[in-house]
Amino acid sequence: MYTPAITGSGVFTPENTITNAELVVAFNAYADRQNARNAEAIERGEMARMEYSSEEFIVKASGIEQRYVMDKTGILNPEIMHPLLRQRSDEEPGIMTEMAVDACRKALAQAGRDADDVDLVICAASNHERAYPAVAIEIQEALGIKGFGFDMNVACSSATFGIQAAADMVRSGSVRAALVVNPEICSGHLEWRDRDCHFIFGDVATATLIERIEDAKGPHFEILSTRCATQFSNNIRNNNGFLRRTRPDGLADRRDMQFMQNGRKVFKEVVPMVSQHIADHMSDTDIESGDLKRLWLHQANKSMNDFIGRKVLGREPEPGEQPNILQDYANTSSAGSIIAFAQNSEDLEQGDLGIICSFGAGYSVGSVILRRHN
Ligand code: CO8
Predict the structure, then answer these.
(1) Going by fewer Cβ within 10 Å, which terminus of the chain is more open, N or C?
(2) Which residue has its alpha carbon closest to ligand 1 atom 31?
């Protein structure tokens, strides 16, 4: 048996940002157009008037100030209201591969490794741009990695579940080093025409390199323990999929073909589930809250993270103990906790303990307890 460690991490950040102000202008213009188009039905009481979105609401309800996206022109066009991505030929790398390769190269560079050192790629993300061949295998080919790759999807917990799968394989010796990569194009699956959720998501890709601790060439994080849990819920759901055309209204512009959630219920049910999950994981690993130097939480909602941080630490978290990145990136599904980790971990000292924790659709919760080695 070997001890697995995270030896490198990388973040690919798209070039385009959309501020809350830009987003709200586009949404409100769309609402005006819809209300004008449906004026008679609204007048007859057959249809509800679309209400305006507001910057104040978005920041207060979520803590999100802007998001990065792969395309902003379509999203901000009130006649389109979704990203416009060019059609690629089958001979070109897909968009997820392009994002993933950048994040993987950064993780490899940080670890002082190259493609030859890696023998597994797990592409763990909320959505995959096609059914097959696996995006992971395309990433593997683009990087020139031998060995094997596969895709997995556990929505917001894809990254932590992927890290557990990779860490277990490194531990058993079936692979020597694995890349877990999370290209999240949430903008493709978000309903930008629904004011309850249009502000929630952004695009990004993250990657972590997991290898045997004795192979680490620089500062790294020993993976002390991982824990995954799931519990079925319909409160976050997307019904899109390959059976779409088989349904009578298969090609219709249906609301449930994009992200849907009951945000209030999610908040109420997931916060206690996550707090208990982390408490149990820590106690089974003989770690007390006072031992924990950092919490890298899933980035969905600032109040949610404040609440979980207080529960786990038993006090108000100090600034920097529980870093948030959602003000800049919004919710990037499985990549959120990994961005927080990649951008807020270099300062930790020898022996410091931290925990990555994701939570979201499924429901799913994944935690990874780490110890810093400098
Ligand atoms: N502007 C102005 N007012 C608004 C807006 C808006 N944009 N949106 C809603 N309102 C109104 C509502 O209509 C409501 O009005 P009323 O009281 O008259 O009915 C009022 O404001 C309050 O609305 P809410 O109760 O919905 O507001 P909340 O305070 O609950 O905040 C949140 C909404 C931010 C959604 C919050 O509930 C939340 O963050 N919940 C947790 C959600 C969460 O963690 N989800 C995880 C999902 S992500 C995941 O698992 C990955 C899935 C895969 C991703 C795929 C890519 C898309």
Answers:
(1) N
(2) 61
What's the confidence (pLDDT) of residue 147?
A: 96
Given a cut of 90, is residue 373 above it in pLDDT? Answer: yes
Measured in Å, residue 158 CA sits from the centre of ligand 1 at: 22
- Ligand 1 atom closest to the Cα of residue 298 is 44
- Of 65, 57, 61, the closest CA to residue 301 belongs to 61
Atom of ligand 1 nearest to the CA of 364: 50
Tokens 């890290």 belong to 163
Closest alpha carbon to 194 in 51, 38, 25: 51
Q: Residues with Cβ < 8 Å from 304, sequence gap 6 or more?
A: 267, 270, 271
Q: Is the CB of 148 under 6 A from ligand 1?
A: no
pLDDT at 251 over 90: no
Instruction: Tell me the catalytic residues.
Output: 156
- Those residues whose C-beta lies under 8 Å from the C-beta of residue 190, and which sit 6 or more positions away, are 197, 198, 200, 201, 258, 259
DSSP string, 34-54: HHHHTHHHHHTTSSPPPPPP-
From the CB of residue 35, how many other CB atoms can be counted at a distance below 10 Å?
A: 15
Q: What is the pTM of this model?
A: 0.96
Query: How far is the CA of 269 from the CAs of 39, 248, 275, 281, in angstroms?
Result: 39, 34, 11, 19
What are the tokens at 255?
A: 């609301």
Q: Is the predicted pLDDT of residue 250 greater than 90, yes or no?
A: no
